Amino acid sequence: MSEHTLEVMKCTHEKQKPDPDSLVFGTVFTDHMFIMDYSEEKGWYSPRIIPYQPLTLDPASMVFHYGQTVFEGLKAYRSKEDGTIRLFRPDMNIKRLNRSSERLTIPPVDEEQLLSYLKELLIIDKKWIPEKEGTSLYIRPFIISTEPNLSVAPSQSYKLMVILSPVGAYYKEGMSPVSILVEERYTRAAPGGTGTAKTAGNYSSAYKAQERATAKQKAQVLWLDASEKKYVEEVGSMNVFFKINGEIVTPKLNDSILDGVTRNSVIQVLKDWGLTVKEQQVEIEEIFRAHRDGILEEVFGTGTAAVISPVGQLEWNDENITIHHNKTGPLAQKLYNYLTDLHVGKEEDRFGWIVEI
Ligand code: COI
Question: GO: which molecular function terms (predicted)?
Fold first, then answer.
């Protein structure tokens, strides 16, 4: 067998599936996982689907020490009509995985090949895709550096894995609005940093700010730019949109904002609905001014995990504002309905975003 042929080793004992009514995010994993290795001599080799299991790694593996790692997140859905597996724009996630890898000096993967391995894994664990409304199978591809070496330098060996997790809503609030604290001290990402890469350090370095938000009974933080603390960047781990006086505004991508797949999709859908969408620098002051002027209509985050997450309250500089009476706004709701219907096949795929298996 060639070093590039997919090997499949099925589990002998299937685990019990979770109750679809009590699914949370990311705590239950399916029967199988995908794994492949990288070495300088062989490139990516030995792709295999194996029973889900713990890893054995050298404690000197570079990922533990210097965090050379990247990940992705996408979802699989089951069509209500015929049970087909549906993926939402997986090509975008795989491309971004390579972009993140490039930033972290991790070798790229063959995008089509990775998609084909992912499809095989999903076919094998198809029964794990939950069907209840609002649930899905979250797909987590990730790469870790495995060379046992404490030198501060790129690893010469890696593992790419894909694990699958049946999930419910990401936030306990679901589609109910969340309250947000505008973070003034810490920053998520800086110009020239790793903000556009999906890498572990961007997320763990946010915990400290999250701690402050939680202490103030806020669900998430809103990140401002690192240099001036003036411009809006992201909300929690999502991109952010504002509806002001009938127009939609979202921060323009820069090298500290993640290029979200849901962000990209939402912009296209909104334009298709005839709405004006402006991608530009957004001053936090301008948002609070719009609220004072009575023209801040809606605020919502977009991301794969939550899809759309309405913001009901914002606190900045001890000023608290309430948006749309702390209720889910009509645009956020319409987008959520549209995207989630598209995911499961209740909405026609006019943009050609769905990959069926
Ligand atoms: C997403 O919105 O999909 C995220 O980035 C959250 C994820 C890291 C759990």
Answer: L-isoleucine-2-oxoglutarate transaminase activity; L-leucine-2-oxoglutarate transaminase activity; L-valine-2-oxoglutarate transaminase activity
